[in-house]
Design brief:
Shape: globular
Structural class: alpha/beta
Number of helices: 10
CATH class: Alpha Beta
Radius of gyration: 18 Å
Order of helices and strands: HHHHHEEEHEHEEHEHEH
Length: 328
């Protein structure tokens, strides 16, 4: 772990980049500008449109593409820093407050400089709901069919960028039409570092031990939700630990006629929600863990935007929004 000699606190990634003279993050940030212009385009919806129908799939899609265009979001790499700033900026324009929960986690002797990006809307409301997704990308394409690719980081269009894109657009809609509940959006870092389970879910494990601003009443995790052939079952661990939250979501999906949400039991998945469940925050995992034929695009270099769909982002975004608006 590296420390600032004056304050005694761990050095932030920004400080490390400045001290080493690396300009990659600045250049990558500039490269995001065309996508950001698209993402910030005015919504075609008006105040008479039901709030959940205001989810703008084109803006969400621009958010997905912007993340992939920035490069791999692996801790200690420039693309990671660029997307960190992107999320802080975008959430900052939608939420009441936003903060960077910076932390350092050492893996195999390397200090990883990571950030959970946290936005809060309606902190004074009696019920608080957590919405979260991981924003990092897998450092190694360990499931790629070509052995030569397996030490290369994945693009992470679906596995990371899709959930973040949906939550950025959900936050924009919530700013226009606040729900009756408070909403805490957390973009979790270090979910996919690995390669083993012991070195994964780092951001959720850190957040579970350092919850800010306060522990939510219940939560929804989005992961791998951009698949162009989207089918989301009730994830097994979610159903066992937070079945009532699943019921809320599938009620909303039924009301909206969203057949992408399959009302049947799915397998139990090891994911970020487990650390939250363990500290008493009932959280479900919305995940389509069947990505490509035989899950053949997962953790490979094939995880690119063409395997995803704006329609899938819209389906999940609308259901999440309806779930929030159903709360009285």
């Amino acid at each position: 772990m590296l420390f600032d000699p004056h304050s005694g606190r761990p050095l932030s990634r920004r400080a490390l980049l400045a001290r080493s003279g690396q300009l990659g993050a600045m250049l990558l940030g500039a490269s995001l500008l065309p996508s950001l212009a698209s993402a910030r385009a005015a919504s075609p919806f008006n105040q008479d449109t039901p709030p959940e129908r205001r989810f703008n799939r084109d803006r969400a899609w621009a958010d997905l593409v912007a993340q992939v265009d920035a490069g791999v979001r692996v801790p200690n790499m420039p693309g990671h820093d660029a997307v960190r700033e992107y999320m802080l900026r975008e959430l900052g324009s939608s939420m009441d407050s936003v903060e960077a929960q910076d932390f350092v986690w050492e893996v195999r002797g390397t200090p990883l400089h990571m950030t959970n990006v946290i936005g809060v809307l309606g902190a004074d409301k009696p019920t608080q709901v957590l919405l979260c997704a991981h924003w990092d990308t897998r450092p190694q394409a360990d499931q790629d069919p070509n052995p030569a690719n397996r030490s290369t980081p994945i693009p992470g269009a679906n596995d990371g960028a899709s959930g973040v894109a949906i939550l950025l657009e959900v936050a924009r809609v919530l700013r226009q039409a606040p729900p009756n509940v408070g909403v805490i959006v957390v973009m979790l870092d270090g979910e996919d570092y690995g390669p083993g389970i012991e070195d994964m879910f780092l951001g959720s494990r850190y957040y579970a031990g350092h919850i800010v601003p306060a522990k939510a009443d219940w939560g929804i995790l989005l992961d791998m939700v951009g698949d162009r052939d989207l089918h989301i079952p009730r994830e097994g661990n979610s159903q066992a630990a937070a079945g009532a939250v699943n019921d809320r979501v599938w009620r909303a999906a039924h009301e909206l006629g969203r057949s992408e949400f399959v009302d049947s039991a799915g397998p139990g998945i090891l994911d970020d929600h487990l650390a939250l469940i363990q500290v008493g925050l009932p959280t479900i995992d919305l995940i389509d863990f069947s990505y490509g034929p035989g899950n053949s695009w997962w953790h490979t270099l094939a995880d690119t935007p063409d395997k995803c769909s704006p329609a899938s982002l819209e389906a999940v975004g609308q259901v999440v929004l309806r779930t929030l608006y159903n709360e009285s």
